[in-house]
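In pairs, describe these two lines:
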Amino acid sequence: TVAMIRIGSFAAQNLTLSQNMETQARMQEHRIQISTGKKAQAYDGISADTRRLEGLETKHQQISSFTKSIKRTDQRMAEMENVVSQLQDIASDFRSKLLQAGSGENLAATNIQGEAETLLQEAASLLNSEFEGRFLFGGSRTDQAPVVLQDNAGNDLQFDDGTPDDIESGAYYRGNDQVLSARVDTDLSVDYGVTADSANESGFHDLISALARVARPNVALEQEVENATDNLSDPNNGAIKRLADTRADIGSTRDVVERTKQRLEDTRLNVEEGITDIENVDVARAMTELSGHQTTLQASYAVTARVSNLSLLNFLR
């Protein structure tokens, strides 16, 4: 009988010890969860959700990449829009000066040519604006300013000298015709570039032509003032109208990019919530479970202590 009691006690003690060790392990796990806020420190601790977590993390990285692209693109477009706005001001200001100058004696009394040259240089400088080391209006070319008002020998380009190398022919443009684009979402790219090429209808060539006609006339100044006014004021093809359209186009593209940014932000919040649900632990629940394990372990220790004090004499009593 004594041997049976010893064997039974030994088995019970081993079982209790094993249970105590499991409880201690669970307690340690809860302590780590509470201190880190995470359910596990490696993927094997959340094996059932590993594939879903990896997918969410990949999506989060993609969103971050697109968001950075959107930020850079919007900054470039904001600067482009600002430049076009300043070109609009130049066009409006020059038109007012032309109307004030008029013709005849009044025209002769003004320095309209000098003012036109100053505004021409200002317009060229604006069209050579850079952002992050890239010209805004030169297409994809980065080694040459897009607007150069001199030839290779350093001589001023004339407005119209009947050759392919004059301002009227667009010889001032040294960029290329590649329109810049940016991928802002998995299945969405936006074209946002505007070049100073005379071949497009941005209004840049019309403005440069109006200024150059007066600054560097090839016919009578009075006639060029009239022609320049037409370059600026034509309701369909004038610089003022086309510059306004160009600015509106840039604004519309910015709206598309902004809506995409907001959609990605909403998706990012949902993805982060999914990641949090998988990775993060409910700290309050973990603390409650830790407390329960502590109570269980203390009770187990008490029982173990009582069992270890049993003897045959105590049993017979």
Q: What stands out?
A: The beta strands are 130-131, 134-135, 181-185, 188-191. The longest strand covers residues 181-185. Residues 1-5 have pLDDT under 50 and may be disordered.
